[in-house]
Amino acid sequence: MSATIDITELDLLIPLQAFLMDITGLTIDNVLDGQQNLTPMPLGDFIIMTPMRQVGLSTNRVRYADNGVYGEGVQQTSRSTQWPCQIDCYGESAADNAAIIGTLIRSEYACEWFRQNGNTLIPLYCSDPHQTTMINGEQQYESRWTMDFIGQYNPNVSTRQDFFDSITVGVIAADLKYPPES
Fold first, then answer.
1. Does a cis peptide bond (omega within 30 degrees of 0) precede residue 179?
2. In the structure, what pLDDT confidence band is assigned to residue 177 with cuts at 50, 70 and 90?
3. Cα 93 from Cα 144, distance rounded (Å)
4. How far is 117 from 94, CA to CA, in rounded Å?
């Protein structure tokens, strides 16, 4: 059995995407994962999400599960993990969308929204939005506002763990040489 993880990057991007769509009114075609090849930038207002890293917030916690069948035991190792994701807002409403996102992520509204919508990702805070204007392929300035969403998730990594039902324990006298000589 190879190691498996119960919360993938996609499991984090989907609720963040849904939250951003809900508060900005943009559609699924306009709130995108930032690392897609051969995909043109959408027209009008849109948001790009780019995961940046995974930061461990705790030491590992280990749990064991033995279902009684040899070779099918599981060790689950988990740790709280911080997940920074860069959010870039583009278009005429980029500044307004950035202000909405930056304000609401720091609110009880966001905590409640994520709790009611899967509870996989927990919003911690968001950096202040700042303008990072870009020049597009046509050498035109595009309005772009950037901020860092910081969330937390608690993944479990499962690996195979062997257990046994019985053991035979023997006693060896400490003052004798072991194994015995002939």
1. yes
2. low
3. 9
4. 25
